[in-house]
Specification:
heterodimer, A: 109 residues, 7-stranded mixed sheet, B: 126 residues, mainly beta
């Protein structure tokens, strides 16, 4: 299985800040990487797919980059609605199984 | 409008088999490249992908749970069913189904989960 390592596991920031979350995979996955946001008691919401493509309706302050084994999610200008948990997920091979990172909890400072 | 809804028992006993149904609308599993997946989340833990079924009835499973999982579809009812055998308290989780779409560009073919159900909490306890 492809292992995912997200960092940090938690993060405190203020409204207006720029934050970056990192996801590293145990082997190269090209750009087969998606990002999700999840709020307590809710289903995850797709933010970015194929490492850098913004899902329709997602604010442009969210951006993704990376390829191979190292990926980042950046939120520029944090808004109150952005405090949530973020997950990366690899879609390299359904045959080998899809996996999620362990999540990054973004909290208000 | 795409919607998905999970249904099934809220509680099962250890060793029992869990059967969950995902009822969806707004898309069809007869559409080429369309899929549905199951994902679970134990309380306070990360998301865990379980299984995927595609429009062509190809099925894929988590390697760690393979052998316990079976995914199937009924296109006439717009439903996907997941069964998990030999349930254990560690399987206590919220189970989500998600539409699994594909980004297809110049031979680059990537799945992503773009619509999710609200989830159903399953507790395994005697």
């Amino acid at each position: 299985d492809i292992q995912m390592t997200q960092s940090p596991s938690s993060l405190s920031a203020s409204v207006g800040d720029r934050v970056t979350i990192t996801c590293r995979t145990s082997q190269s996955i090209a750009s087969y990487l998606n990002w999700y946001q999840q709020k307590p008691g809710k289903a995850p919401k797709l933010l970015i797919f194929a490492a850098s493509i913004l899902q329709s309706g997602v604010p442009s302050r969210f951006s993704g980059s990376g390829s191979g084994t190292d990926f980042t999610l950046t939120i520029s200008g944090l808004q109150p609605d952005d405090f949530a948990t973020y997950y990366c997920q690899q879609s390299y091979s359904a045959f080998r199984g899809y996996t999620f990172g362990q999540g990054t909890r973004l909290e208000i400072k | 409008q795409v919607t998905l809804r999970e249904s099934g028992p809220a509680q099962v006993k250890p060793t029992q088999t869990l059967t969950l149904t995902c009822s969806f609308s707004g898309f069809s599993l007869t559409t080429t490249k369309m899929c549905v997946s199951w994902v679970r989340q134990a309380p306070g833990k990360a998301l865990e992908w379980l299984a995927l079924i595609d429009w062509d009835d190809e099925k894929y499973y988590s390697s760690s749970l393979k052998g316990r999982l079976t995914i199937s579809k009924d296109t006439s009812k717009n439903q996907v069913v997941l069964t998990m055998t030999n349930m254990d308290p560690v399987d206590t989780a919220t189970y989500f189904c998600a539409r699994t779409n594909v980004y297809d560009s110049n031979g680059y073919y990537l799945h992503f989960f773009d619509y999710w159900g609200q989830g159903t909490l399953v507790t395994v306890s005697s």
